[in-house]
Amino acid sequence: MNYKGGCHCGAIQFEVEAPEVIECQDCNCSICSKSGYLHLIVPESKFRLLQGESDLTTYTFGTAVAKHRFCKICGVKSFYIPRSNPDGYDVNVRCLEPQPRELIVEAFDGKHWERHAHKLSSLSKERP
């Protein structure tokens, strides 16, 4: 299924291919818990930025591998390039339209990221 998504003000628009029933992660690390991000990690081929590249700004911290992309206008992070899957995209499920028919939310212990990151590494791989 193709979902449209974007930021609050509409400057950033993207499309992502994902199942009707989405399994996502709710991470308890500092940045995710403060922003209320629900993670849907997809291969690069399943994500397409439709508009707003010039309205994005990037924030990095720690290892600077993750590229947190925010709208310069409204501040919403609707997607980013995750440290666990730098070959893919991580989309905020809360920014999708329509919302998934069914959502399965799994807890992810991002406070102890080094111990648990391997559980996410396959999510950006193409599936048959």
Description:
With 128 residues, the chain is mainly β. The protein has a single domain, classed as Metal Binding Protein, Guanine Nucleotide Exchange Factor, Chain A (Beta Complex), CATH 2.170.150. The chain contains two helices and eleven strands. The protein has helices at 30-35, 113-116; strands at residues 2-6, 13-17, 21-27, 38-43, 47-51, 56-59, 67-71, 79-81, 88-92, 96-97, 102-108. A seven-stranded mixed β-sheet has the order 6-7-8-9-4-3-11, with no helix packed on it. A hairpin with a 7-residue loop joins strand 7 (67-71) and strand 8. The two termini are 15 Å apart. 34% of the residues are buried.
Radius of gyration: 14 Å
Number of domains: 1
Order of neighbouring strands in the sheet with most strands: 6-7-8-9-4-3-11
The fraction of residues assigned to DSSP E strands is 35-45%
CATH architecture: Beta Complex
Q: Give the topology string: H per helix, E per strand.
A: EEEHEEEEEEEEH
Tell me which oligomeric state these chains represent. single chain
Q: How many angstroms does the end-to-end distance come to?
A: 15 Å
How many strands, which pairing sense, and closed or not: the largest β-sheet? 7 strands, mixed
What is the CATH topology? Metal Binding Protein, Guanine Nucleotide Exchange Factor, Chain A
Number of helices: 2
Shape: globular
Query: Mean pLDDT, nearest integer?
Result: 93
In CATH, what is the class?
Mainly Beta
Q: Report the uncertain regions.
A: none
What is the number of E strands?
11
Structural class, from secondary structure content? mainly beta
**Helix content percent band:** under 10%
